[in-house]
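Sanity check. The docking grid for ISJ depends on where the pocket ends up, so I'm generating a full predicted complex first rather than guessing from homology. Inputs follow.
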Amino acid sequence: MESLVLSDRFSDFYHAFHQDDQTAYVTLGVPFENIDPLAVLELNGDSDGTRFYWERPEYEMALAAGNKVAVLRNSGSGRFRNISRQSDSLLQTVRYFSEINHSMAGAHLAGGFSFFDQSMSGSWSSLGNASFFLPEWLLVRDGQFSMINITRPWNKKDSLEEIQNWFLDWINQFVSRLSNNIERSRILRYSVTPGGDIMPVESEAERIRWIHNVTKARQHISEGHYRKIVIARDLKLRTKNKVSSTKLVHFLRKEYPSCYTFMYQLNGDATFLGSTPEKLLSLHSQYIKTEALAGSIPRGNTATQDAILEKKLQESSKNREEHAYVLDAIKDKLSMLSDSLEYAPEPVIKKYANVQHLCTPVAASLRNNMNPVDIIEQLHPTPAVGGYPELDAMQKIQELEQIERGWYAGPVGWFNSNRRAEFSVAIRSGLIRRNHVQFFSGCGIVEDSNPEAEWEETRIKFIPMQKALEYALE
Ligand SMILES: C=C(O[C@@H]1C=C(C(=O)O)C=C[C@H]1O)C(=O)O
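Predicted complex below; grid placement will be based on this.
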């Protein structure tokens, strides 16, 4: 990268904004070596303890970011509006320069929201109800193309030469840190991973309590309080060995290529990560994609068994009902933002390693250009993770679950200054803080649900994270 030479356009760019009082940050986008962004995150080490990773292998797009230049946080019921406003103001103060014309060339904010808006305790407190960071570096791999966006605070006194040299030095240092660490990893290549014990902290009493609460939820439904509610549970584990989050993420993306694998850590504290099949929102040129994903059945052990289960899921009125609530709610919510809604007439079956789901993809064109966070505010929570009718079910979730959901089932993702965004619903996820691990899993309850079968469904949904954890012990 020593050959990085910024064109005359950079000098024009500098002269256009350098006396401008509105400028607080400057971002430079340049092509980068086509290297795995997760390897970069791993090789770069912890730095300031703020990291983000995002990949859905089937989309051939991966994104890694590290070090915070600015952080947006908020709590309470106005958190979406507040983050939307804060992000608009922040992004207006970032001046962006790139020789590349690409929708990922720009300033990005990465982070997300907790499920509920009540204040968070314990391990969740570092992430808060809503937090995003403007990273110092963000590496994007889009198919065969890679680029890096580098952001730094702007100081009016900096000359053109100083600023050019700063970027040049930054890139050179970054690249040499990566190559030194690659050398070090080569030496360690043959070391054996010792693994380690995982101690589950789960009891029969917990199973009985959960099943009792699901039975109670069914009773509420038959009494007409609501029609669907999603009840989750957690699995607490203690590990003897240290957990490597990047190793865990590496396992997840390999095993679940059609899921979004994500990881987020703020200020070196707890890490929230997972591999979720559920898209909340993708936004590109005012075009939104989302989906109704609800209704589940296990995978079969043989092709025939699998096909039989698939047919059973397609024809199950209980699963079709659970699914229909989600689709109806999404249609209602999106019709406020768009005049053109497209969705498949029948749900399709999406198959993952351990489970298959009913899925209806939905697409829409936005009536107005909007901050993606304002769209998220409309969409979250869908009845796939909350319930139906939304408010009646939401009030009962905490009473019936008796766990702190934190960011589980919340919107997690990124958006950028080009109004491109991608957010997932953070299910099949967990929180890791030192050797304490907490995984989450839930399922939709309707009147016909069988509590024992729902317990089994949540057990199956834990498997990916449990396997990944075993793999990630150092
Ligand atoms: C809530 C979860 O999953 C949701 C519930 C589903 C169901 O009950 O069929 C299916 C997919 C998700 O919408 C979870 O995995 O934790």
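Relevant for the grid: DSSP finds eleven helices and 21 strands in the chain.
Also worth noting: The pocket of ISJ is lined by residues 230, 232, 278, 293-296, 322, 357, 384-385, 427-428, 441-444, 461 (CB under 6 Å).
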